[in-house]
Design brief:
Two copies of one chain form a homodimer. By secondary structure, chain A is of the alpha/beta class. The first copy, chain A, is about 30% helix and about 25% strand. Chain A has one domain (about 5-295): 3-Layer(aba) Sandwich (Rossmann fold). The interface of A and B includes residues 275 and 283 of A. Chains A, B: Belongs to the esterase D family.
């Protein structure tokens, strides 16, 4: 049994945000922290639906909780939120603290397969398997049959790709300024080159496509019309201009799949990549997920 | 003419948050920064009413803008917001960076009179006189006939005391966990001892009472019923428990003045001193001021 340690607790909105830590098997035994918001309406007889928020490069489990502006709407809707960290901490991999786009703060929500990284860098398993198992075991009043996911930037990539790989787990996904096509864009190709052992010689390697939302959407076998995806991107986002995000590729994938109504991409005039952008549309994203979580 | 320099700009809510800097006469020529939120409805023919937010110890002009959760409501109401810094930066006063309760990040919204501090530590003049003058000169679409003020902790002290000393300027004041009686509580007495030259031998010195909201409210000559004050304090606020805040003293002062309906003090069950507390009640505070700013 994993020991879930309570690090701190704050009353907020209609409930409580608690920071927990535990020694993670997925992360090679390293301690990971996460924040869990539980509305006061949640109880063992009436557990709350769950909305994950995955943060972006250089962020941690506090960023979305403190700056995102999600909790008042989540509280009003009676939705719990889970804010994981963005990478292992203190893995001791050579060079992990040298580049903000790789290593600490940059786990990319995948399971590493390259020798150097594979012991610790398994954020995919942490979020899909271990956090749910640990929180279930702890008996938190969470309804694991009603789960959705959202994220920002690298975490937007995480939200979209985890959803598309696990449509049986998640009801809906949304993202702010996500990296939609990381197998072809700079952050993603850099991360995948390091984290993933590519056994194939295709370009991009098939191992990369497993974490590429554009590919995952085009190739999805989910029944047509069953997916629920919302994406917001600011027109003044410098990373959009640098072609890190590529929401057009995701739209094209939806079109190829033959069901563009499953994906709404909204270009938000004048907004940038910051939490000022996120906090502006945060209530709308929570309401979007509420539709599916409370259906 | 003071040069108002634009440091950055972010679209947020229904408008834009701009960070400005200028060389401040009040602060002995040091450069100060502030954030200004202007809703898109503001124009020279229809300038926006103004709500100041004064942050607490260790904070700066970004803290309230990023973590406060004010801007969506302000934007909806068409209200501008001004977020000043909490002290001069880089004054070079001996010891100003040694104690989080004094010096940098701890200007206490007063004009220093002690020799060591008086050249730079004049946050009162900065906010009451210089920021309005500089922003007027720059032609921002702000309506200086409609101004209210709020703040947190040390900034709650600032909001209440600046309001009570300037009821001709401000329409209303509100505060989260304010230091209500700083002439008798540890943060305040420490700051006042250093910043203010006490010529009188009374205890507390009369110079201190000029910045003590409890004293200012009890002694106010404003017409009965004309004041508008809202205060929220969390029951689990450790600084409340340590008697740094003393909202009961402020309530007593309102009672002595004979018009308790001018002040609402709400004890918020289970909340602490953090921005999780502030962001929960931020929309209510903005709506409170909107009543008076848009009357």
């Amino acid at each position: 049994m994993v020991e879930l340690k309570k690090e701190s607790s704050n009353r907020v909105s209609t409930g409580t945000l608690t920071k927990y830590s535990f020694a993670s098997g997925s992360l090679g035994g390293l301690t990971t922290q996460l924040n869990v918001f539980l509305p006061s309406t949640a109880s063992s007889s009436s557990p709350a639906p769950i909305l994950f928020y995955l943060a972006g490069l250089t962020c941690n489990e506090d960023t979305g909780a403190q700056k995102g502006g999600f909790l008042n709407t989540a509280g009003k809707e009676g939705i719990a939120m889970i804010f994981p960290d963005t990478s292992p901490r203190g893995a001791g991999v050579e060079g992990e603290d040298d580049d903000w786009q790789l290593g600490t703060g940059a786990g990319f929500y995948l399971n590493a397969t390259a020798d150097k990284w594979k012991k610790h860098y398994n954020m995919y398993d942490l979020i899909i398997k271990e956090i749910p198992a640990v929180l279930k075991e702890a008996g938190l009043a969470l309804d694991w049959s009603k789960v959705s996911i959202m994220g920002h930037s690298m975490g937007g990539h995480g939200a979209l790709s985890l959803y598309l790989k696990n449509t049986g787990i998640f009801k809906s996904a949304s993202a702010f300024a996500p990296a939609c096509n990381p197998s072809r864009t700079p952050w993603g190709t850099n991360a995948f080159t390091h984290y993933l052992e590519a056994r194939t010689r295709s370009s991009p390697p098939s191992e990369w496509l497993e974490y590429d939302s554009t590919h995952l959407l085009a190739a999805s076998t989910a029944p047509k019309g069953s997916l629920h995806l919302l994406v917001d991107v600011g027109t003044e986002d410098k990373f959009y201009k640098e072609k890190q995000l590529e929401p057009e590729s995701l739209k094209q994938a939806a079109k190829e799949r033959g069901s563009d109504e499953e994906l709404e991409v909204r270009m938000q005039d004048g907004f940038d990549h910051s939490y000022y952008f996120i906090s502006t549309f945060a209530p709308e994203h929570v309401e979007y997920h509420a539709k599916y979580l409370k259906a």
